[in-house]
Sequence to fold (142 residues):
Amino acid sequence: GFVALMSVRLIVSTLVPPTSPGFGIIIQAATPDEEKWTAMPCFLLASAVAGAWPWIFDKLISLVTHQDFGFTMGAKHFADNYPLTCWTGPAMKEAFRRVYSDGGAEHQQERNGKLAASFAVVVGHVVPFMGAQTTIMQRYFL
Fold:
């Protein structure tokens, strides 16, 4: 049930970002009082499993197109152009740019790029109402 709810959350919260906190409230309300302590670990575990969907969709699409990132690029295009999520991509790019800067010395560029990409994804998940669209396009940055 938790994984299905978090999978639905990925879609609904991408289309209407302010609904994202509602899913946590639903889980808390549906959990019996004596088992409330299990709500957050289950929420986090189910979110991690649901977060694999973009990778799975990329791999399924690549079976037909023979190119990876088909879903991710489509999701990024959607998020960049949809009025309720159009600020997510630029915010993540800015977070990446601030960490990566000029990349540093040649031998540090790969490490700095990985650090900057990871930071952009963390920022995307931490900023309110950005988590779902960050999940569907995080492979673009990573």
Q: What stands out?
A: DSSP finds eight helices and no strands in the chain. Residues 69 and 113 are 19 Å apart (CA to CA). The chain has a mean pLDDT of 90.
